[in-house]
């Protein structure tokens, strides 16, 4: 994370504007041209996510693969949020655990619901949420949300759909190798769960937020997703 932030804060690596991070109607810049989607093979696939200006939210889950025997297992969820509309760019790293997860897509759906709730608390209405789970992305972009591929994900997907309804936010897919930060956060969480019982920690080193007044940490404290618990959050 430290290496990533050092590169990100180098002005030669990205073009930024001076808009605020949490206005009620934040602009994500020119989005349609930057998505570079392949309309033939995967119309929701973003080839160059780093070219999307504004707020990008990466989500991922780390758990055991699905099997024929459906049993609950430990899950680590990772969320990485970046906003390039301010200088220096703002980055948020969130590690989360989930109880009673029975499938990979269920865990991925929980991560999607959590980030949607955080964005809603922050009144961010124009964001791009990115996941490497093609099945989940296609379902959330579908017309009928009443018949999910796994019925146990319905509370999470419906919650996500309700929060994103009426906003300009979009859900898109990225390749696994473009989701490394969220994947790393999810894996670190799962590893921590196997060794100890970590307690929640929240830190903010963003100078624009002032002392003990981080809007991101406040938003995280206000979210409530069933069986999902945030273990750590870092706003930089």
Structure description:
There is one protein chain. With 236 residues, this protein is an alpha/beta fold. It is built from seven helices and nine strands. It has one domain (2-235): 2-Layer Sandwich (Nucleotidyltransferase, domain 5). The strands form two sheets. It has a seven-stranded mixed β-sheet. Helix 3 runs parallel beside helix 5.
Provide the fold topology:
Layout: H1 2-8, H2 32-35, E1 37-38, E2 42-46, E3 55-62, E4 73-83, E5 90-101, H3 104-121, E6 127-131, H4 134-140, H5 154-164, E7 170-173, H6 180-195, E8 201-204, H7 215-222, E9 228-235
Parallel strand pairs: 3-6, 6-7, 8-9
Antiparallel strand pairs: 1-2, 3-4, 4-5, 5-9
> What is the helix content?
25-40%
CATH topology: Nucleotidyltransferase, domain 5
Q: Identify the strand order in the major beta sheet.
A: 7-6-3-4-5-9-8
- Tell me, rounded to a whole number, the average pLDDT: 85
CA-atom Rg in angstroms: 17 Å
* SSE series: HHEEEEEHEHHEHEHE
Low-confidence stretches: 11-40
Give the termini separation: 10 Å
- Form type: globular
Level-1 CATH class name: Alpha Beta
Number of beta-strand segments: 9
Instruction: Tell me the count of domains.
Output: 1
Structural class: alpha/beta
CATH superfamily caption: Ribonuclease H-like superfamily/Ribonuclease H
**Number of helices in the DSSP assignment:** 7
Q: Percent of residues in beta strands?
A: 25-35%
Biggest sheet descriptor: 7 strands, mixed
The CATH architecture can be named as: 2-Layer Sandwich
């Amino acid at each position: 994370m430290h290496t990533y932030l050092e590169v990100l804060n180098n002005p030669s690596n990205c073009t930024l504007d001076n808009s605020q991070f949490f206005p009620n109607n934040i602009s994500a810049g020119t989005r349609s041209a930057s998505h570079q989607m392949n309309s033939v093979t995967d119309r929701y696939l973003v080839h160059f996510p780093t070219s999307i200006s504004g707020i990008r939210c990466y989500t991922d889950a780390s758990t055991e693969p699905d099997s024929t025997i459906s049993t609950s297992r430990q899950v680590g969820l990772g969320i990485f949020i970046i906003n390039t509309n301010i200088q220096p760019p703002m980055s948020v790293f969130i590690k989360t655990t989930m109880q009673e997860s029975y499938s990979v897509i269920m865990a991925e759906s929980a991560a999607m619901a959590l980030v949607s709730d955080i964005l809603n608390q922050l009144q961010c209405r124009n964001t791009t949420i990115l996941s490497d789970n093609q099945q989940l992305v296609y379902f959330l972009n579908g017309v009928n949300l009443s018949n999910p591929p796994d019925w146990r994900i319905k509370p999470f997907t419906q919650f996500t759909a309700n929060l994103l309804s009426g906003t300009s936010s979009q859900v898109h897919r990225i390749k696994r190798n473009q989701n490394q930060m969220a994947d790393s956060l999810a894996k670190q969480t799962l590893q921590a769960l196997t060794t100890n019982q970590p307690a929640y920690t929240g830190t903010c080193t963003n100078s624009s937020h002032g002392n003990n007044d981080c809007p991101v940490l406040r938003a995280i404290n206000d979210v409530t997703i069933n069986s999902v618990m945030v273990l750590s959050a870092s706003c930089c």
